[in-house]
Every structure is written in structure tokens, then in C-alpha cells.
Amino acid sequence: MTMAPGTRLGPYEIIAPIGAGGMGEVYRARDARLGRDVAVKVLPSDLSTDGDRLQRFEQEACAAGALNHPNILSIYDVGTHDGTPYVVSELLEGDTLRQRLGGATLAPRRVIDYALQIASGLAAAHDKGIVHRDLKPENLFVTKDGRLKILDFGIAKLTGANDHKYSQSEILTRRVHTDPGKVIGTAGYMSPEQVRGLEADHRSDLFSLGAILYEMLSGRRAFHGESAVETMNAILKEDPPELSQTNQQIAPGLERVVDHCLEKNREERFQSARDLAFALNALSGSSATSAPTATVSTFAPHWLKRRELMAWIVAGISVVAVLALAVLYFRRPPTETHAVRFFFNPPEKNGFGDFALSPDGLRLAFVATDASGKTLLWVRSLDSTTAQPLPGTDEADDPFWSPDSRSIGFFAGGKLKKIGASGGPAQTLCNSRGPRGATWNRDGVIVFVPSFNEALYQVSAAGGEPTPVTTLDKSRMETSHRWPHFLPDGHHFLYTVNGGSESRGIYVGSLDGKEKRRLLNDVSSDGEYAPPGYLLFRRESALMAQAFDADKLQFTSNPFPIADQVGYDASTFRTFFSISQTGVLAYDSNSGKTQLAWIDRNGRQLSSVSQPSNYFRPWLSPDEKQVAVDDVDAQGNRDIWIIDLARGNPTRFTFDPAVDWLPVWSPDGSKILFASNREGDFNLYEKPTTGAGKEVLLLKTDLSKSPTDWSADGRYILYTVNDPKTKFDLWVLPLFGDQKPFPFLQTEFNERNGRLSPDGRWMAYYSDESGGDYQIYVQSFPAGGSKFQVSTNGGAFAAWRGDGKELYYLSPDKKLMAVDVKGAGDTFERGVPRPLFDMRVSNFTSAQARFAVTGDGQKFLVNNTIGESTSGPITVVLNWTADLKK
Asked: What is the pTM of this model?
């Protein structure tokens, strides 16, 4: 069944065919909801009754969909249309590796680059217990910017609990049963065990990768016969000709890596994709086209042949020389004629938070959690395999470097701080309660954002009283200025304006406040200057570069992509990349998107809700059949959406070009309360849930407000006010009598997210009055008075069970906590907090971390970040501008 342009498959409109194969037809399609083009693979209806074809098609979606890695094709959605199953994935621009090869050889450095990316993707799949089993050049795709993607998990195999470190219950895909003796794979790239019909494991993929490496280096297949039978016999009984005979420029170290991938006995191969990547990384740091090259000395010696052990010991010793050369490389300006890519993995069982390259390009500072659960600032040299945490940086966020690369600035505990790059005591510079970036110039001036909804301020790097640098223009619906980056003169800087569509974009400003010019108005991203003269920013999912004259403050060319998949945090408008002054680029391809999911009290995921997007603040309707969220579309517009939980389809609820967010459902289900800055500051509005009526302004004042709850009897609306004098305060709007709002808590501390108990007698909220982490408190309502601390080790986003006998909140270590509670008279009894399950969120106070709970307390609607709690690797590109010449 060929689909004509204009055909709709659910929310996707077919644009044009891309190709076809044994597993279906692929089309370019448009997802109008997110404003992006996607690829749709369709299994024709005449094949959907073929059980094997259907199983392979479903398995491809399940296996790839369970993975989130920059080197694996991203699956967005699955569905059926008129009996036709389809899978929606990211749209790739480029060629398959088979097309790239065309029977010719590739340069050894390019081979190592591709092999590292394949190994990185395989490591992620193997970590999930997924074995590809059909790795070949046709299933590898090279994007226009050199990113390699693994495709087609149609015959992927799920290993059992004994095969790998993950148990069957931890893996999201289902097992593929293979009859004993059945050959699975493609002749020429199958491992010997696959040819024999034996069970494949992760080492089988490494044999296939070895065959691909051989072909890239020699221009010929490692195993090839006149028939499939002869080819498979060659795999079992023959060794391919030595690479040095086909290409004398190949280094012996690289040839040894290929040979060990192609060992007939899988016990003698590399034992993991990470081992292989480590070997390739050692080669990438030295010449891959000259004399003997070191690989590694830690390749699990039990699989080495005895006659080669001494050779590998010598090679291991030479690793020291390789690292010494790497040090020398990083100590001089880059002069190579080509870019070199490699990957930084996060610390074990961890994930990368915010990160920043040092200006000299020698080190990466990043946020991660240590073994004890502390969130700290870490530093890793680019010529090292390990990272070091910096004591005294607890709860660090948003690191940035001094211009001499000797110190690191960061935010923690409501303060702006700095610390030496090698450690030492951290120094507090000033207060900052909601950071959104900072930058440091040669004159010792730091420009930073003191709160998420303020303009930019400056402070001395020695500390002191901050002074304003920019001013919010509320007439143009500007809600915040954020993510500043100094330009080379140290006087001008780039920054991002957040707000309505007419003001949003990347601007250039100056320390004297005389310059304010919008450079880009079609992006929701931060921008950073990169020598010798480019402005880098994100558009859709790509990292773009545009030639920029830093003296004239103007562009001199059109923008072009330099990386096709770069992560982005829609809640803060920050792109996950960093650039040095010496030609080093680092970026994270993690999408930053979230997906709503139902979780039971044991942490078991029951189902997903809708497709991944930029969801925030889910609020269940009273009948628990719908959820209201605020979401950011591809153009950066934030609006309220309503999702039908049975069908999973979202419907836009607000359409104003201003920011509409923070939905709260009325207790009778007839209205939704929300905040909007369509008249300057954020004010409170309500709109009928039918969507038919007009939006009504409920409360307008000179300070921005955030609705947090609507009492069960419909008499009170709770909201938060952000007052520069008293920080975040809790206020109440009565919907009876004179309807005059009054403060419930207005102190020198931050009090946030007030939630009323079902009987209306107690308000739960979180506050930083203890001087450390936010804690959950309960106070009598409406008069105040009796107050009790509920959490013991920090908490945010309190929520009540329907009968008021249990309270839930999120802890700093990202666990959903439950506490038995009972209010009687002026006393409030609370039990010991107990963890229910881990949450996959970036930060426990992030807007994406808010959750909803059913009235019986048995199910939780959570907003999971896509992928596992540990993120994938950061891509590092040395001499990134060299690729521009190509």
C-alpha cells in the first residue's frame, strides 16, 4: 500500500516516500503538533497478517523505543491506522554506511570515529540487555554532520537475567524466542555462533562490528562466498586476509583490534562494547595510520592468546606514551586539519547534569551525584579517564569558568559561589535563589541571573552587592533574561529573553546598559560565541553555527547545522552544549523531553500517557479522566494543553502568544485556573474546560503570581507571589465576600506550592526556613498558627490523598515519599516518611518534577525524563571548525 502525500496517520501527515524494504515502507511526514518532520515506517496491510513480519516490526519499535542514545535511532511513537501498523522516528538526513562505502575504503581516522560511535550505541543497547543480531552497513546511518545511528532492531534479542546485569523485569522490551538451530542474521556479518544456530549474546554484535571495520578499512568484505552457504562456511573456518596486505597504511594496533573482534571463539573477543570503545579511544589519541599504536592494557586478559600476551603488555606500556602525547595535544592550540570526536561517559551509575568546558579546552566541569547520593561539582581533564568531585559543592548547579580556567563559579543553596578548579574552600559571592546562568570576564565581573523571573545583574568575582545590568520590558511581555555569555571584548554579552513571541530570542547587551539588540527571534535557546567568529545556538533539534562579527555585532553569513541532535531543557530554554576558546566543542544529545506515565506504589510503570514532549505541572481532573499540563511547542510557545487519559491525545487549551502556564483544575471540573503574562506580570485567569467560553481575569496585581491549588469546597484559590522584598510568599484569594486576597505566609524565606487538605483545615507547602534544603511543612488553615515539619531530609511538591490520611512529596534524592498523617483539633500527627519509588527527574524542585496522585493513593501520574536516570555520553569534538572546511 503506497501512501499518497496528504494521507494522515493519526496526527502525522505524509509528505513524500523515502524508501522501501523487506520490513516496510518509509515516508517523510509532518507532526503539526510539534512543528517537526519525522520518519514514518509502515508495515503494509497485506503483510500485517504475516505473524513473523508483524513480530519483527513490533520488536523493532519495542527494542529501539526502550533505548535513548545519540547513536541509536530515536523512536517517537507507534500506532495503527486502518489496520496498518506504523512506527514514528526521528528523520535522518544523510546516507547509510553502505552508501558511504560504495566499495571503497575509508580513512583510518574516519573508521575509528565511526567505530567509536557504533560501540557507544551498542554499549547502551547491551546495558539494557538488547542484542542487535543484524549489524551491517545497511543498518548503520551516517548523518550529514558525521553522527552515526544504529537502525533496525527488527530481530533484536533480549538477553535473560543470567546473560547480563539486568533482570528480565527491569527491561522494557519483550523476549524474542528463537527455535534451536534457527539461523538469525545476515550472511557475511553473522558471528560463528549465529551461523551454527546457537544463542547470540552481546559479543555476537562485536563480531559483526569487526566485519564492518574490516570492510571500511579494506574496501572488501571480510567473509564472502559465491552463495550464502559458502559465506557462512568462511565465517566458521576461514580468516580474512590480513588488513596489512590490503592497506599498508593501517597501524598494527588498529589491525589487532579488528582481529580480536573477529575471533571465532567469543570468549577470545572483546568482552564488552565498552572494552572495544576503550581500545579505539586509545587509538584515536595517536596515529592510526603509522607505526605500531597502543590500544589498552586492560582488555580482560583472560581472553588473550598466550602467544600475544607479551605484545599486549608492550602495547599497554605504550598507553602511557599515548596519554603523554594527549597532554601535549591539549597544551597547545589545535592545528589539526580535521576534527576528532570522542565521548565522555558519566560517573558509574550516574548521569550528567549541567556542564561547562574550561576556556582553555583542557577540562570539563559538570554536575553529578557521588556514591553517597550527594550532588556535587566534578572536574575531568580531557586527557584523563577519571573525574574528581569537588568537596564543598553540595547541590551545585549551572557551573561556569573564570577566563583563566583556574576557578569555577556555580550556584548552590540559594547562593552564587566560586571554587578553585582543583578544589579548596568554596567562597560565597552573593545571594541567588533561582539561577539561570552566569558568565565571567577578564576584569573580574560576573553577570548572572539571581532568579528565574528576573533580569541580569552583575557582581564582582570577589563578592559584593549585585547591581542590575538589564531591565525587563513588561510592555513586550518579557518575563526573564537568562543564560548570559560574554563576547571577546568583555563588555558586550549575549543573553536570552524569555516571554511572549514578540520579545523572545537571543540578544546582545552591554555592561553599561546602552546596548540591547535582538540578534535572533526564531529560536528558544541560549547563544554562545565561538572563536574564530561564530554564534552557536539551537534551532529545532540541531546545533547551528552562524558567522558573527563580534566587533560590529552582526551576522556575516547564513546559519548552518554542526550537530543534528542536541539536547534542550524546555523549562529553562537552555541547550546542552559548551564551547572553549581553543576549538573544543562539547554537547549532550539527551532530548530533555518528558513523558507522562502511570506508576503504582511499588514503582511499576502501568502505562504511558501521550507521546514525549516538554510537559510541566500535570494536574488531574476531578474525575481522573483528563490531565492538564503546560507544554512548549517547537516554536517555544508555552500553552495549556488537556490530555484525554484514555486515548492519550493532547488538545491545545490556550492560544494566546503570551506565556500561559500552571494549570489548576476547579473542584467541580468546570474550569481551569492558570497564570498568564499577557498583560505584563503573571496574573490569574480562568477558562471553562469546554473551551467554548472566554478567559476571565480573576486577579491582577503588580507582582507575578503562580496558582498552586483550589480548595475542595471551591471557596479559596491558593497562589504564590514572587516579591523581591520577601521572596516567594503564599497568598489566598477568597471567592466569596469582598474577594480580597490576603497573605497566608509572608516571611524572609521562600514558601512555595501551597496545597490544601481535602477537608480544608491544613495547608502543606515547602520552605527553606531551616537554612538548608527545602522541607515540607503543614500549617493550620485559614488562620495559620499550628505548624509541623513533615519531611526529615528535604522535600518539595506536597500532595494529599483523597481522604487526607496520607501526604506525598518528592525528596532531594528524587524519591517519591509517603507519610501517614492525621489532623485533630490543633494537633497534626505525622508518621515516618517512607520511600515508594524513584522518580526520573532532573531536579527535585524542577517544574517537570511535579506529580499527580489518584484519590485512593494507588496510582501516581509522573513526568519522567525520557531514558534512564543515567544519561548518555557527552560528545566532545576537538578542532570542531575543521569540519566546516569540508
From this structure: 0.55
